Amino acid sequence: LDAPLFSGLPGDIDVSFEFFPPKSEKMEAQLWASIEELAPLDPSFVSVTYGAGGSTRERTHRTVARIVEEAKLPAAAHLTCVDASKTEIREIAERYWEAGVRHIVALRGDPPDSARKFAPHPDGFASAAELVAGLREVADFEISVAAYPETHPQADCPASDLDNLKRKLDAGATRAITQFFFAPDTFFRFRDAARRHGIEAPIVPGILPVTNVARAREFAGLCGAAIPDWMDGLFEGLDRRPAARQLVAATLAAELCRRLYAGGVREYHFYTLNRADLSYAICHMLGRRPRGEADG
Ligand code: FAD
């Protein structure tokens, strides 16, 4: 393995953490405990997802505003085009700007019923690229967009998906965050193809520490990511051993991150699923230490 050992990793990385808006008081407590635990790692930003069909519009707003106000962290709000007119989207974006939010993750989104195909609102934005352009007219947001190392399931072909990514960046986005993936080569091939396609913006790998392969497979099926068969084998027999499952999950994700580091990656986005432990452990193994403790 020509990657440096964990002991040699200096933590010279940027990290960001993704959360989803909580549905209950218990989930809210879990979310805030996780944010508190991860905040000392000094993330470049933390982001909050937007539920299918805009179902979490208010909860996403409340969560992002609270992150800015109370946690004093740079927050990014995910925003989609689903079931909203351009005017509604602009109003939402204006409210974010007023609340001190300066970063939007701009997405097309999917219909709430996953069997349906996306159809734009009659007065809405038809794609993430259009949404990016619309947001640029509202305020000077930093804008991130989605990228798909294994190609978005609705794309005609990998090249047309890269054309689309380029359109989103040309429209004013400055960073692409990838769908999750499990093999470093998947990322490197995609990054190389994107560069050949004239895409120069940072492409940040989205890291999903998987503890439940069956659930991950269900989700992956919807979003065009492949769960390798060998992962099933690794989790086999651990159904009733949650602690062992956590260790396996952290080891796998940390190993993926280590190999990405060896290939030049210095920016990571973690899909935390509102839990801090795995993301914290992986950052730690990459050499990341809490603010003020770097030398301790
Ligand atoms: P787009 O970039 O618009 O692309 C959608 C599809 O259309 C692609 O196949 C693209 O190639 C094709 N396409 C677009 N324009 C054209 C064109 N002019 N010609 C030909 N083909 C075209 N979903 C949520 O609901 N809420 C979230 O908070 C959320 N967060 C996400 C965060 C990340 C980092 C990622 C990777 C995904 C997230 N998603 C979220 C999922 C996302 O909404 C879906 O994957 C959705 O199906 C596509 O969104 P997009 O922004 O990539 O769309």
UniProtKB/TrEMBL annotation:
Coiled-coil segments on the chain, per record: none
PANTHER family to which the protein is assigned, alphabetical: METHYLENETETRAHYDROFOLATE REDUCTASE, METHYLENETETRAHYDROFOLATE REDUCTASE (NADPH)
Classification via NCBIfam families: fadh2
Enzyme Commission number: 1.5.1.54
Protein's name in the database: Methylenetetrahydrofolate reductase
Molecular function terms, GO-annotated: methylenetetrahydrofolate reductase [NAD(P)H] activity
Species per Swiss-Prot/TrEMBL record: Qipengyuania benthica
UniProt pathway: Amino-acid biosynthesis; L-methionine biosynthesis via de novo pathway; One-carbon metabolism; tetrahydrofolate interconversion
SUPFAM superfamilies: FAD-linked oxidoreductase
Amino-acid biosynthesis as UniProt keyword: yes
Record's catalysed reaction(s): (6S)-5-methyl-5,6,7,8-tetrahydrofolate + NAD(+) = (6R)-5,10-methylene-5,6,7,8-tetrahydrofolate + NADH + H(+)
One Pfam family here: MTHFR
Required cofactor names: FAD
Keywords: Amino-acid biosynthesis, FAD, Flavoprotein, Methionine biosynthesis, NAD, Oxidoreductase
Similarity section: Belongs to the methylenetetrahydrofolate reductase family.
